[in-house]
Design a protein that fits this description.
Largest sheet of chain A: 4 strands, mixed
Number of domains of chain A: 1
CATH topology of one domain in chain B: Immunoglobulin-like
Oligomer: heterodimer
Helix content of chain B: under 10%
Number of helices of chain B: 1
Number of strands of chain A: 9
Mean pLDDT of chain B: 81
Largest sheet of chain B: 5 strands, mixed
Helix content of chain A: 10-25%
Strand order of the largest sheet of chain A: 1-7-5-4
Strand content of chain A: 25-35%
Number of helices of chain A: 1
Largest interface: A-B, 32 and 31 residues
Structural class of chain B: mainly beta
Mean pLDDT of chain A: 80
CATH class of chain A: Mainly Beta
CATH architecture of chain A: Sandwich
Radius of gyration of chain A: 18 Å
């Protein structure tokens, strides 16, 4: 199995990922491909204080790992590199996808980029997200 | 000629080593790469969610078994594309490997196991003398 066939899945995913995907809010218009199943897989948890986005991406080259927040979208970028002592002709088994990846998701709520924080532990990227102040729900008191 | 092969696994590997607790939590087989260098065989396994104290690598006779324990969250996320499960996978070895010299390193959820080839099997450069 040569290195070339391994990089094609990544190119295909990058092409699909150029479109924004919306996790919440509007359903994708008819005719668009389902954009789930891309890399890295994501989990999202919401609570009153904000949201936590988790990405399952072990072995990412840390200098290449980049998270950006704008509007209601989070973009995760990075690269999984081969080991320096690995050469294409000497693999017996190759199951792990390698290469550069980018994934952008729309969270469905406006975010405050200044309050976003990320950690990368044991191969799981955790991004703590806060709602933009004007997007924070305001509780309405009952007057009578 | 491959001297390290994986025992056939599906997403629910069968093995006489597994106990009931492992089975209950649900285990998955981590994706691996196996390659050869002049001095060793290298195994890389994706095991995100495993911390160093949750990792177990055992070399026993002709087998290497890797196990990784993860911490599953108390509540399910609102939107979910992945679910963590404990990892298990076993590999068969052959005699030209030096199991005494096995090293294992875990970094950012990737396990790297290196098994040195026994010295008699390592390619030896033979100096050529001209006369």
């Amino acid at each position: 199995m040569n290195g070339q066939s391994m990089s094609r899945p990544w190119q295909e995913m990058r092409r699909l990922q150029r479109e924004m995907e919306h996790l919440f809010g509007d359903m994708a218009p008819a005719g668009r491909w389902s954009l789930t199943g891309e890399y890295p897989p994501l989990n999202l948890t919401r609570d009153d204080k904000g949201m936590t986005l988790e990405a399952l991406c072990p072995g990412v080259d840390r200098p290449s790992l980049e998270i950006s927040v704008v509007g209601d979208a989070v973009t995760i970028r990075g690269e999984r590199k081969p080991e320096p002592d690995a050469s294409d002709e000497r693999y017996y088994r190759r199951e792990r996808p390698l290469g550069a990846f980018t994934r952008t998701v729309g969270i469905g709520e406006r975010l405050d980029p200044d309050q976003a924080q990320a950690t990368y532990t044991n191969g799981i990227l955790r991004v703590q997200l806060a709602r933009a102040p004007e997007a924070t729900p305001k509780k309405i008191q009952i007057q009578n | 000629m491959a001297t390290m092969t994986t025992t056939p696994t599906t997403s629910a590997p069968t093995s006489t080593h597994r106990d009931a607790a492992e089975h209950a939590a649900g285990t998955v087989s981590p994706r691996v790469d196996i390659y050869e260098t002049d001095k060793a065989y290298v195994l890389l396994a994706d095991m995100p969610g495993v911390a160093p104290d949750g990792l177990d690598v055992v070399a026993e006779r002709d087998e290497i078994i890797i196990r990784g324990r993860v911490e599953r969250p108390a509540t399910a996320p609102d939107y979910q594309e992945f679910e963590l499960a404990n990892y298990y996978r076993a590999f068969m070895l052959t005699e030209d490997l030096d199991t005494g010299g096995i090293t294992a390193k875990l970094r950012d959820g990737v396990l790297r196991v290196e098994i040195p080839k026994s010295p008699r099997v390592q390619p030896k450069k033979i100096p050529v003398r001209t006369e």
